[in-house]
Amino acid sequence: MSTVYVLVEHDGTDLNATTAELITAARPLGEVTAVVVGTPGTAQGLAPRLAEAGAATVVAAEAADADTRLILPAVDALSMLAAADPAPILVTAGPTGNEIAGRLAARLASGVLCDVVSVNADRTAEQSVFGDTVQVSAAVGGASPIYTVRPGAVEAAPIAAAGTLTQLPLPEATAKDVRVTGFTPAERGDRPDLAQAKVVIAGGRGLGSREGFTELAEKLADALGGAVGATRDAVDLDWYDGNYQIGQTGVTVSPDLYIGLGVSGAIQHTSGMQTAKKIVVVNNDEDAPIFQIADLGVVGDVADVVPALITEIESRK
Amino acid sequence: MPTIVALVKHVPDTWSAKTLEADNTLDRVSVDSVIDEINEYAMEQALKLRDDNPGAGLRVVALTMGPAGADEALRKALAMGADDAVHVLDEALAGSDVLGTTWALTNALNTIEDVQIIVAGNSSSDGAMGALPGILAEYRQVPALTNVRSVTLDGQTLTAVRETAEGRHELAAQLPAIVSVTDKADKPRFPNFKGLMAAKKHEITVVDLTAIGVSPEQVGLAHSATAVTAATERPARAGGDVIRGEDAATKVADFLAAEKFL
Fold this sequence. Notes:
Chain A has about 325 residues and is an alpha/beta fold. Chain A has helices at about 15-25, 40-55, 70-85, 95-110, 210-225, 230-235, 265-270, 300-315, and strands at about 5, 30-40, 55-60, 90, 110-120, 125-130, 135-140, 145-150, 165, 180-185, 200-205, 225-230, 255-260, 280-285, 295-300. Chain B is built from 7 helices and 13 strands. Chain B has helices at about 35-50, 70-80, 100-110, 130-140, 195-200, 210, 250-260, and strands at about 5, 10, 35, 60-65, 85-90, 115-120, 145-155, 155-165, 165-175, 175-180, 205, 225-235, 240-245. Chain B has a 9-stranded mixed beta sheet, sandwiched between helices. Strand 10 of chain A pairs antiparallel with strand 9 (about 165-175) of chain B, so a sheet runs across the interface.
C-alpha cells in the first residue's frame, strides 16, 4: 500500500481545522502517515483525533526544544521520513507551510507545488492562480513531491483509521537554526476563521475609521455569524489588524457570501475574494470597480445602509 | 568588505491582471514590468541595516536573475541607494522553477565577496510561493529569519520580529544569515533626483551561467521539477443589479433571504 505524509497543524493541544482537510486531500495518494512535530507528549494527545480523521499511522517527531526552533523541526522530521521511505508530502499552504515545502524540495530533490486546491491519485494537482482567474493542472516530479494545500479548498471527510503511534526523535539544533526568543500567539476571536468562513464582511477605506470597523463591519458580521476582513489600505491605516487582511498579500477567502463595505475593488483585494458565491457591496462611489463583480451593489453611505440592514436582519430572525 | 545582498525581481506590474502564454508560462511581454513592490521593502531594510551600522562598513548590492529588461529593477534599487548591482542574464534560465532559480542565485551570490546578509521579499507577486528564501537557506546552510516586519543588527547577531497568522515570534540568529520581509515592514523610501541620475549611469555587472559556474542542465523550463499541463480561464464575473435610495437596506435583506443567508 502506498504512503503519503501529512504535516499535522496543531497548537500543542488541539488540531487546527486544516489538518482534517489535509488528511482528506491526501487520501487519493495512499495510506496517511500524520506527522506531529512538537514537544514530548504532543502526539499521544492528538493521536485519537488523528485516527478519527483518517491517519493510519501517527509519527511523534518530538524534542524538548521544538518550540524554540523555527520551521526546521518539521523539515528535519519530514525529510528524514521521506529519505528513508520516499512518498508524497502534504502541508497546509501559507507562509510557514510554503517555506517548509520549499526546504523539503531542496533536501529531497523533488518538486513542490504551492497552494493547490486538490491532489489527484496520479500525483498531478489542481491550482487556482492569478487571483483565482485561471485554473491550472500541474505535474510535479521527484520521488517525494511536496504539495501545500490551500486552507478551505478541500472539505474534510473523516474516515477512521488505525492511528498507530510511532516515535521519531528529532536531531538537535545547529548553527543553521533561528532561535525563537519569544512568542505571542495571535488572539483567537469569537468569529469564524477568516480563510474558512462561509460569510465574510470586508471593510475598506470607505469605512472611514477604526470605529467604522467596530460599529458597522463587526456588527453586521455578528448579525450574520460571519468573519470580518479588511483591505490592505484599511490595515495600513491601522483600522484593523493585519491578520484579517484579504487579498494578494493576505488571506484568500472563498465564502458563500461576501459583503464589501467601502471597498473600491482594486486587484490587490479582489484577487483574494472573487470566487465568493455571492458578492454584495456598499460604496458611495458608483464608479468603483467592485460594482463590476458584485451580484448586488448598493450606491450609498455605509453609515446609513449598514445600521438599517442590521435592523432588517434582526427583525427577520 | 562585508556585503548585504538585496534580491530583486522584475515582474509584470505587481497589481495588474496576469495571464499565461500558449506554453503555459507566465506572459511577461504584454504587461508593463516593474520591480516587485515587496523588493522595495527588502531594499529599505537592507539600506537601514547598512546605514544604522556605520562601524560595520557594510555595502548593499542588488541582485536579480531575469531577461534583458530586468536591469530596470536593479536601476530602481540603485536609485534607492544600493552601492552596486548584479544581473544574472542567460537565455537558458527562461522557465526555471523555484529550485533552478535559487540554484542560479546561490551560485551568483558566491561570486560576490563577503556576503553576510541576504535580504529578500517574503514572496514574489508573480510566482507567489514564498519558498525561495527557505530554499536559499538550505543551499547555503545558513539561518533564515523569514516573514519579518523588522530586523536589527548588533555585532554578529540579527534579531527580528516575525508576524504570521500563528502570532508574533521574536527571532535571533548569527551572521551570515538570510532575511525575508513582509509588506508590514518599514515603508520604502522614494529615490531622490540625485539617486535616479546616479542609477542611470551606474555600471551593472552582468553575469551568465558560465560566469557563475552553473550548467544549462540544472536550470530552465526543460529541467523544471514542475510543469503546468493545462490552463483554463475562469469566465469573468458579471455585475448584477445596482440599487440606491432609502429602501436599499430592505432590498439587500430581501436578497439575503432569497439566497437563504437569513
